[in-house]
């Protein structure tokens, strides 16, 4: 099963993020914007909420939406769903988001480096992954073996997660950004600064899912999920 966390940024037609102050140095720290409320901390909630409602009406399996690390950046979650179905729902949700954005006269960016600066957050498309083995008793052992295989195939996955072959996502991974893994492979429990994160509830339960944090916001879901299946389907 797959769950995809799709981040995006809302821009004015001139390319500037909506809601940003004229003097960028007055932006607050990123912690002020995660799941934020208040007009001083949020821009674009009408777009995000309208998108959720439109997806619900269309039957898209969208299960959450929240403000992200910087004002004008949002995230929504697709799934959990089987692989091809998860990709279908993500593509339709992206289309609906862009149609909704037209009504508000704003532009949607799915760029891995939407702000162009290493000082600002990147745009991600994290993929949560589980199998019957990982969700069963003793599943944490399976997850640890899976992570070992992901380390061996790290370069193959980075290529699969780069749909334009322009290494824009690799630039995100080199940016030393908040909640962004580094270029070298890493894994840990609970940390957002690693390539593969094991949620604390998975560790406590001894089974569950893990999160691949390497994909960027422009990830091509079918290729990314195919890479995960090809790498991990032989794990016993």
UniProtKB/TrEMBL annotation:
It is found in: Cytoplasm. Keywords: ATP-binding, Cytoplasm, Ligase, Nucleotide-binding. This is glutamine synthetase. Residues 1-236 form the GS catalytic domain. SUPFAM superfamilies: Glutamine synthetase/guanido kinase. It comes from Rhipicephalus appendiculatus. SMART domains: Gln-synt_C (SM01230). GO terms for biological process: glutamine biosynthetic process. Its EC number is 6.3.1.2. PANTHER family: GLUTAMINE SYNTHETASE (PTHR20852), GLUTAMINE SYNTHETASE 2 CYTOPLASMIC (PTHR20852:SF57).
């Amino acid at each position: 099963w797959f769950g995809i966390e799709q981040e995006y940024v809302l821009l004015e037609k001139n390319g500037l993020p909506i809601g940003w102050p004229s003097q960028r140095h007055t932006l607050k720290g990123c912690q002020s914007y995660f799941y934020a409320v208040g007009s001083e901390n949020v821009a674009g909630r009408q777009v995000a909420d309208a998108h959720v409602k439109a997806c619900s009406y269309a039957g898209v399996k969208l299960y959450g939406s929240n403000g992200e690390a910087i004002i004008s950046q949002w995230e929504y979650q697709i799934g959990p769903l089987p692989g091809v179905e998860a990709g279908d729902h993500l593509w339709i949700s992206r289309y609906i988001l862009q149609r909704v954005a037209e009504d508000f006269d704003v532009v949607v960016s799915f760029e891995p480096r939407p702000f162009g600066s290493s000082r600002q957050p990147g745009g991600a498309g994290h993929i949560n992954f589980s199998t019957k083995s990982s969700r069963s008793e003793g599943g944490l052992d399976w997850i640890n073996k899976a992570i070992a295989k992901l380390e061996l195939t790290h370069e193959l996955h980075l290529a699969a997660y780069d749909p334009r072959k322009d290494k824009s996502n690799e630039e995100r991974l080199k940016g030393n950004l908040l909640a962004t893994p580094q270029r070298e492979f890493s894994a840990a429990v609970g940390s957002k600064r690693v390539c593969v994160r094991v949620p604390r509830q998975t560790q406590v339960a001894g089974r569950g899912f893990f999160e691949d944090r390497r994909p960027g916001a422009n990830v091509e879901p079918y290729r990314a999920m195919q890479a995960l299946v090809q790498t991990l389907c032989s794990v016993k």
